Amino acid sequence: MDYEKLKLDEIKKGYHFNQEKKSYVCNYCERNFQSSHIYPINGEFFEPEQAAAKHIEVDHSGQLKLLLHSDTRYNTLTDKQIELLSLYHSGMSEDEIAKNLGMSVSKVKRQRFLLQEKAKQAKLYLAIYECAFNNEDTDSLMYK
Q: How far is 97 from 88, CA to CA, in rounded Å?
């Protein structure tokens, strides 16, 4: 995946719209979902953007999993952070997570706080970056 060319929303969704091809394209396998088609997936029918989202879920095991395990220098999460984020996403309570990981509840809460701080730092950095480069073509910047 070329993080430089994708907007933040496109990275989060796992697919992007290709204006030239008039299609939604999977960021991982580059499968195209043409704007003028309807796509059958597991016995259901989907419009192109919905089909691209369903494709990520069905064929790639979901976007969060892909992002958490992306093999890139930009993914600086530790194995423990990846596991913790996966468990939070699964809907487990902090008590259940602590038991599952063999940690105290206070340590799980502390880790969640540290992850929230990391997210705030990333947001501030993106705002600073956008302000610093506001004279450039912002459509090409990945955080839009």
A: 8
pLDDT band with cut points at 50, 70 and 90 for residue 133: confident
- Helices 94-101 and 79-89 meet at what angle, rounded to 10? 140
Whole-model pTM above 0.90? no
* Neighbour count for residue 83 (Cβ, 10 Å): 15
Integer Rg of the chain from CA: 18
Residues 92 and 123 in one domain: yes
Residue type, 72: T
Tokens of 77: 């999460």
For residue 2, being part of any structural domain is answered with: no
> 18 - beta bridge partners?
23
Q: Taking a C-beta distance cutoff of 8 angstroms, is the pair 75, 63 a contact?
A: no
CB neighbour list of residue 108: distance below 8 Å, 6 or more residues apart: 84, 94, 97, 98, 101
Q: Which residue has the higher pLDDT, 43 or 143?
A: 43
- Residue type present at position 31: R
Of 66, 90, 111, which closes a domain?
A: 66
